[in-house]
Specification:
Largest interface: A-B, 70 and 70 residues
Largest sheet of chain A: none
Mean pLDDT of chain A: 87
Order of helices and strands of chain A: HHHHHHHHHHH
Shape of chain A: elongated
Number of strands of chain A: 0
Radius of gyration of chain A: 21 Å
Oligomer: homotetramer
Low-confidence stretches of chain A: 1-7, 210-218
Strand content of chain A: under 5%
Distance between the termini of chain A: 67 Å
Chain lengths: 218, 218, 218, 218
DNA sequence: GATGAATGAGACTTCATTCAT
DNA sequence: TATGAATGAAGTCTCATTCAT
């Protein structure tokens, strides 16, 4: 009556996850349409048929894969604030740093972005979920920070509602740059991050007498 | 001995362009792999075979399409400088405006970006050309502007070399946003543009006594 | 983990052979280029896709087919010598008889010849193999027989090295005749065989006093 | 009213012939089915459409090509007899020599043979014509020679009716050999011809006392 | 007569999906 | 549950043939 010993049972329980991981690699490599289920199967160490035990269609597999690899991307975001007790500008730097490590540096985050751009049109549900679960929280965090900074008198009071997107934009730009150029990206990411923080806080204009403040956060 | 003339000659001359346009629509709609040559043919008002009169393979068609639709995107960029005789900040605003209208608002520009993200891995040559013909000039223009501004004392002198990318980033972010969300984009683009210029010039930090200057360019 | 068994296993084991047989019929009927894989599939009682489970391309299918149908054509040739204990001329007759039944009478042998003539230019590897595995052994057998006959004083000592090919030639000629004329071949094959043996042994010239010897082997 | 000057008129008159020559090369190279009309056109220095001015279909072109290249292959055969006033064996040698030079050595003759083997099944009319215009006359010539030789007492009287084909067979064998192996043919054709004549006249059997006669014709 | 753009049927090949085992 | 042989629809590409010029 019992067919599975411990090992088998564990294998069985892990199968879907292994397939989803394999699917991530395969779809990230060639895109949805150009990826063959056989590629996914080969990467997962199973055969084509096995995929259909867990996923009804290629589309469902893709959707589940995106969901599973999106989940948890922002999981420890709250800790960022808890850890940074400093001024608003310090918190912003910490938050952007968090985004860099989870969107730019983390391959998962980057490829999810690619999926949205490349396949989003045919997976609107996925786009909606991504916006709800990922973009909105991100914007919310930055928005909260900006409002806190304004309230604290650290940030200018005349920031318009879209400022929050503009603040995040360079992060996404860098992610896209890596997506496009891979390892051959021509960007000095350390300097880029510094420039991002610098520009967000101080802008381009020369402001005599305030140089010191700007420098202190370079 | 005599080449065809009149009607036939005109058709012959126009066909490739018509096919290229149809290919743009089709590939933009479904991506490279999922697009059927028959779709392209139908859109162009020809039959499958006709495409092969002008393009050897689906790949070549795609490449030629991207090239033809990339060409000229930055054609009138120089005029931007000629037209704006004001201060560096005015010139920057004008340049960003130009980018918005050619990358964000112009569907061609946006979809080229999608092609780079979605298909770039399999068309490295195209990515290289895009970087050379499109990204590099763009960065060059902004870089020149920044240097001019620094020299004129309008911009801070401590800008690092990556600042130029950070300045442009929000433009690309907005383009990507439209690519992902289509007409359902949740961004107020007018406000976004204003926030972009505002942040680029003034940054987030409150700077008592300089409010007036910032406002004058809102 | 368990391979399919029983019915499925047997089908799996037989499929390639069935396809190869169908391919032989189809290619023999129309030639390589004019044969559609769908014809092969229909003859084999499978669908087009199934062929690709076992053979990567039409070319590979053709090559494998020729190999499988060439194999064993000369398998029982050695028995010919064992069985004929008589004089050299009797052995020659027996050997030629063997060739007639395997090259002329056996459809497989004939069509292989057609493949060499019709498709050999595009399958040089196949031609090389055919020469090595089929022609060379055939020539070797006849050559051995001739040498034996010369040594025994039955055959003339001044035979040149190409004689061996000349001896076999009428066999191939008859095969070709059937290939070209099919069932409408105008040749009386019984008489042709007799004439072949007769000419090979006695030649055309009238040799008074030796008539008896010649007749005894007609 | 007159459109063509001398040159043009001559060109026009030569067109069909040039196309037929090009067709011969193309079809000989790749076979009927695999040859593209465009290949033929390119070789002929015209365009596809031009072929259809002179030939209704690919099939008709092939047929006309075979006819035009078969014609005249045996044109000067009669001269062979006129020129050889010697004994029957000398005449046979001369006739075989003629066949070697027109079937084996002449590329036209060889490739016609290939067409018969490779495409004959789908051009039965062509096979019939080839048999009537080429094979039958050949056989007739040899037959006449054999009968003359028998009558003159030079050849054995008991030759059966198929002997004539056996006598010719080695010629065709050699042609086929060249078709299959091209320039890499492993046959020493000089020796082969000698062996052919030798065997046809003297056969394999040792005939003490007649060696001299045999040698005199080697 | 000559051209070559255009056609469209049809070829080879791929691959998501099914299902007997 | 897992397999992988089998399917067949659909894709890319070819090419004989047509026809306006």
């Amino acid at each position: 009556m019992f067919k599975c010993d411990g090992f088998r049972r564990r294998r069985k329980a892990e199968r879907p996850g292994e397939i989803l991981d394999a699917a991530f690699e395969a779809f990230a490599d060639r895109g949805f349409a150009a990826t063959r289920l056989e590629d996914v199967a080969a990467r997962a160490g199973v055969t084509k048929g096995t995929i259909y035990v867990y996923f009804a269609t290629k589309e469902k597999l893709f959707e589940e894969m995106v969901r599973s690899h999106s989940a948890g991307l922002l999981a420890d975001a709250d800790a960022v604030f808890a850890g940074s007790e400093g001024a608003s500008e310090d918190k912003l730097r910490a938050l952007l740093q968090f985004f860099y490590s989870h969107i730019v540096a983390d391959r998962r985050g980057r490829e999810i972005l690619r999926f949205m751009v490349a396949e989003g049109k045919h997976f609107p549900q996925l786009v909606a979920e991504h916006y709800r679960d990922f973009v909105t929280p991100m914007l919310g965090m930055v928005q909260a920070l900006l409002e806190e900074g304004v309230k604290a008198g650290r940030f200018r009071a005349d920031l318009n509602p879209e400022t929050v997107r503009v603040v995040i934009a360079p992060t996404v730009f860098l992610a896209m740059n890596r997506l496009i150029h891979g390892d051959a990206s021509p960007v000095d990411e350390q300097a880029y991050f510094a420039a991002h923080v610098e520009l967000a806080l101080n802008g381009l204009l020369a402001k005599p007498g305030l140089e010191a403040a700007a420098q202190s956060h370079g």
